[in-house]
Amino acid sequence: MRRVVILGSTGSIGVQALDVVRATDGLEVVALSAGRRWEELIAQATAHGVRRVAIADPESAEAARAAWDGEVLSGPEALAELITQARADIVCNAIVGSAGLAATVITLTEGIDLALANKESLVVGGELVIELAAATGAKLLPVDSEHSALFQLISGEDQQPPGTIERLTLTASGGPFRGRSREELGDVSVEQALNHPTWQMGGKISIDSATLMNKGLEVIEAHQLFGTPYDKIDVVVHPQSIVHAMISLADGSSLAHLGYPDMRVPIAFALQWPNRQVLEIPALDLEKLAVLSFEAVDHEAFPCLGLALSAGKEGGTAPCVLNAANEIAVAGFLARRCSFLEIASVIAATLDAADFEQSYSFETLIETDRRSREFASDYLSALG
Ligand code: NAD
Ligand code: MG
């Protein structure tokens, strides 16, 4: 039995990770955590025979303690305690936002394998995360579909001589506003932005997909995971979300990873690696699909991708600033405090005002994240 801890189990990825565990003989969930939705968390714990959970929000933790006889951890040390006491073989980090970085650091420091959905960990502190994994020998298994695809494609290639893999391509669905000009994005609503054409996801990543910031975060994620320079990572819009990623090799071959858009596939791959899980997901029917189409990104309508690329190339703490500003701007948009196009303005202004540090510690990141959030929040308030 592989002992699994799922962090952020009440979210979109967390719920699907529990589905995968349920459908798999060799996996057992031993601990769960969530932000605040304690009733859902306790129901999951009960269904999976889990006796220990962590809840970030103190009031929700209190309510859970009153209603449940299992152990409810909360407070700053809760995740560290949960992860270390669980004797886990693998932790699935499905927390959203930079709030997930600490869990990534704790897991890898303990030398425990990590199924990483929380891409923000790699955006905010990529160098630190990769160095930690290398130092402790913990395996970092990407859950993000494009990166799971790249991981599979790259591990299938003997990379001798170096340079065999020349380019990586990430596909983007284009989100709900694909094909619209900048002028046509001025008054789009929250509901329209949340209405993703191919993936069912949490609110934050759905907005990131609509602005294309999600793809920007993913380019940084790919750069950190695979050590590929930014000028060798391409993004192409692919509305059907069937081709997840492609690698181009020195001999003119390109290898792509295909599948219906279903996150249970990369989740199961990460949790069961190096084995594959039998899932009740249909094989691709190419005749039915008929057409797979590709188009270039419209950078004028979707400036967030460019902002992410320049922060990535700047390196150091720049992606941490970018991410913090994006989290504040997305929350602002969801709360109807700014327009869709103002998301990019908040991020650009925060990046403009920041001084970046080229090397950083975990504490530097926490402080940079805090300061950037403060600046972005003030900027958002001033927008009126
Ligand atoms: P979600 O909003 O549906 O769920 C987030 C989870 O994190 C919830 O369980 C919530 O309780 C928990 N959480 C939030 N704040 C927390 C905190 N401070 N401490 C502890 N837990 C906290 O998000 P999601 O769509 O499941 O995405 C999770 C992560 O996976 C994100 O980083 C996202 O980018 C990534 N991801 C998601 C998808 C997808 O299809 N949903 C695909 C690829 C990558
Ligand atoms: Mg993705």
Mind explaining what this structure looks like?
This protein is α/β, with parallel strands linked by helices and 384 residues long. 48% of the residues lie in helices and 15% in strands. The protein has 16 helices and eleven strands. The protein has helices at 12-22, 38-48, 58-67, 78-85, 101-109, 119-136, 145-155, 190-194, 203-211, 213-226, 264-272, 286-289, 303-314, 318-334, 340-353, 362-383, and strands at 2-7, 27-34, 52-55, 71-73, 90-93, 113-116, 140-142, 165-172, 233-237, 243-249, 254-258. The strands form two sheets. A seven-stranded parallel β-sheet has the order 4-3-2-1-5-6-7, sandwiched between helices. Strand 2 (27-34), helix 2 (38-48) and strand 3 form a beta-alpha-beta unit. The longest helix is centred in the last third of the chain and has 22 residues, at 362-383. It is globular and about 55 Å long. The model has no long low-confidence stretch (mean pLDDT 97).
Bound molecules: nicotinamide-adenine-dinucleotide, magnesium ion
If strands are numbered along the chain, what order do they take across the biggest sheet?
4-3-2-1-5-6-7
Average pLDDT taken over every residue: 97
What is the chain-wise order of helices and strands?
Answer: EHEHEHEHEHEHEHEHHHEEEHHHHHH
Radius of gyration: 20 Å
Amino-to-carboxy terminus distance: 54 Å
Gross geometry: globular
Find the count of extended strands (DSSP E, 2+ residues). Answer: 11
Tell me the strand percentage band: 5-15%
